[in-house]
From TrEMBL:
Alphabetized UniProt keyword annotations: Cell membrane, Membrane, Transmembrane, Transmembrane helix
PANTHER family in the record: MULTIDRUG EXPORT PROTEIN MEPA (PTHR43823:SF3), SPORULATION PROTEIN YKVU (PTHR43823)
GO molecular function, a single term: antiporter activity
Protein's name in the database: Na+-driven multidrug efflux pump
GO CC, any one term: plasma membrane
Subcellular location: Cell membrane
Biological source species: Sharpea porci
Length: 439
């Protein structure tokens, strides 16, 4: 067990915090492997249209992820606060409530989507060339809803239980299984997008199974022992996790608008290039997200025990990180864009040219996205997720959609690439104001 329940601020050492941050970041990174590896294999051994199909379906994946994160972030932060305050029974009640509520809600919504799948895919931007692949990929994710939600949920709660390294191992194992099965199903067995979807779900199932085993055999504060739960606890978890829920829903909606906008300027090649940019940005955004989530658990522990000096000390490390990291990350993004895009497509194709140019413009978002991510997670960590949710709503539903509608009309395809950057830049001022709210 990796204990980060500090008794006073003199105990805090950055080297000790790194023991929590590094596994959390690597877990975040390997979580993206499920989609990135699919993309590389599909682009290399199937077609760019198949790659576009994955991106078209991704809003459905975002909906499932939104439900998982609603309870994973909201519930785990409240659970960590209870653990920090030595309220262990209440912590386990929150854990069990999060599992039951997320599974019930997720399965119900997945069944509704299946009923209207054909019409929904047309709305998402499926064309006659991509519709069949879209349907196959979507059905695998929807039928695998319990695994998709359960894996995400248990990853967060294992970390809160004091075992970020086990969380990393489960994500790494699932990622390796995904890669091996992608190679077998797509390259050797020529199963196309069916193989990609099957490999992803089996990889997620591996991580989910390891999570179940952890809470049966290796747990510390939390267990799968059924506790009496209340609707108040469920609502509290949902309210606190609102920001990440809104974030995923907004990604789903803006992905639809992105795809439809780029189809106007560059057809399926443009959607494929956008898919590559989205895959690559997962890696860089994962650094910010992993750092923020790694710091979230010790912050919740301290806040739950009313040790505000420790919270201030931990936040100081975050401020230093977000002053330096964005410059380094954008430099890496700009210089490594050709190599990253080449992992997906041959450089002689139009998709490669669009992808490299788009990644270098889109990458400007990394200069401001880190502090926005940390500010939202910070509020969730302190049980103020409703404030984070309001900020996320304004940033993604108002600002991003406004720029996404306006800028392509003024600057064409370059306007699409720069929308995220301008959104994050304006949102930085909103974040600065919100961060002054005393948590």
């Amino acid at each position: 067990m990796q204990n980060l329940i500090f008794q006073n601020d003199h105990e805090i050492r950055f080297s000790k915090i790194l023991h929590f941050i590094i596994p959390t970041y690597l877990t975040s990174l390997f979580n993206t492997v499920y989609t990135i590896i699919d993309g590389i294999f599909v682009a290399s051994f199937v077609s760019s249209n198949a790659l576009a199909s994955i991106n078209i379906v991704y809003p459905i994946v975002n909906i499932l992820t939104a439900i998982a994160l609603l309870f994973a972030t909201g519930g785990s932060s409240l659970t960590a606060m209870h653990i920090g305050g030595k309220r262990y029974k209440k912590a386990n009640q929150t854990f069990i409530a999060s599992i039951i509520a997320s599974m019930t809600l997720g399965i119900g919504i997945a069944l509704m989507i299946i009923l209207f799948l054909k019409k929904l895919l047309l709305l998402l931007g499926a064309t006659s060339q991509t519709q069949n692949d879209c349907r196959i990929y979507a059905l695998f994710w929807l039928l695998g809803t319990p695994v998709v939600i359960g894996k995400e949920l248990l990853t967060y709660f294992i970390r809160v239980d004091g075992s970020p390294t086990y969380s990393l191992i489960s994500a790494l194992t699932g990622g390796i299984i995904n890669i091996i099965l992608d190679y077998i199903f797509i390259k050797n067995m020529h199963l196309g997008i069916t193989g990609a979807a099957l490999a992803t779900i089996l990889g997620l199932m591996t991580s989910f199974t390891m999570g179940i085993i952890y809470f049966i055999k290796y747990h510390h504060y939390l267990s799968l022992h059924f506790e009496e739960i209340s609707m108040h606890t469920i609502v509290r978890c949902m309210t606190n996790g609102l920001s990440e829920f809104v974030d995923q829903l907004a990604i789903a909606i803006t992905t639809i608008v992105f795809n439809r906008s780029i189809l106007t300027f560059a057809q399926e090649d443009g959607v494929a290039a956008l898919s590559i940019i989205m895959y690559l940005q997962f890696i860089f955004i994962g650094i910010y997200f992993g750092f923020s989530m790694g710091l979230a658990t010790p912050l919740s522990y301290a806040y739950g025990d009313h040790k505000l000096k420790i919270c201030e000390h931990l936040e100081h490390y975050a401020h230093c990180f977000f002053l330096i990291a964005p410059i380094v990350i954008y430099g890496l993004c700009f210089s490594l864009a050709p190599i990253g895009v080449r992992c997906f497509v041959n450089q002689a194709t139009p998709v490669y040219t669009l992808g490299v140019k788009g990644m270098r413009i889109y990458g400007l978002v990394f200069l401001f996205s880190g502090i926005n991510i940390f500010s939202a997670i910070r509020l969730i960590t302190y049980g103020k997720g409703h404030l984070a949710g309001m900020l996320t709503c304004l940033r993604l539903f108002a600002l991003l959609l406004f720029f996404l509608i306006l800028l392509p009309r003024l600057f064409g395809i370059n306007g699409i690439c720069v929308t995220e950057f301008l959104t994050m830049f304006v949102a930085l001022f909103l974040t600065k104001y919100t961060s002054l709210q005393k948590s």
